[in-house]
Amino acid sequence: MRQSFILLFSIAALASCSSSKSVATSSKTSNKKTVRTSTVKSTGKTIESIVITALSYEGTPYKYAGISHSGMDCSGLMYTSFRKHNILLPRVSREQAKQGKKITLGTVQKGDLLFFKTNKNHKRINHVGLVVETRKGIKFIHSSSSRGVIVSSLEERYWKNAFAEARRVL
What we know:
Distance between the termini: 38 Å
Strand content: 25-35%
Structural class: alpha+beta
Order of helices and strands: HEEHEEHEHEEEEEHE
Number of domains: 1
Shape: globular
Helix content: 25-40%
């Protein structure tokens, strides 16, 4: 029974790579872990810590549904990097794309999420990256199915054409 539940949960979580509007934070109350959806006060320190965590996975190979140094997919990288700092995002990119506030590229900052539609046949968000630099163009970390966890530029033709939206969750 437990294996069936885990399998069903895994299949549901892996169906896509997306985002949503509110951010869940976790806290411990007595012996139970509670999850609250709320607005998270962002600090430069929190954002920088999340970016550093994401960058620590650079070079990790791509693995569908992966969330560790042995393998990671794009939404798993966001999920894991934010979770380490007690900010819970949905596991898949299309659900992550519903989190926070939609912003314009002109206002993108380090720590914002970029969403992409890389499969033109489905026309839905299926990829996510985390902005790590904005000084010399927008650079983001993500997990590429061909190259693993890497930093790319939004100026690259492929990413510029696939870009769908940017969101601020912190």
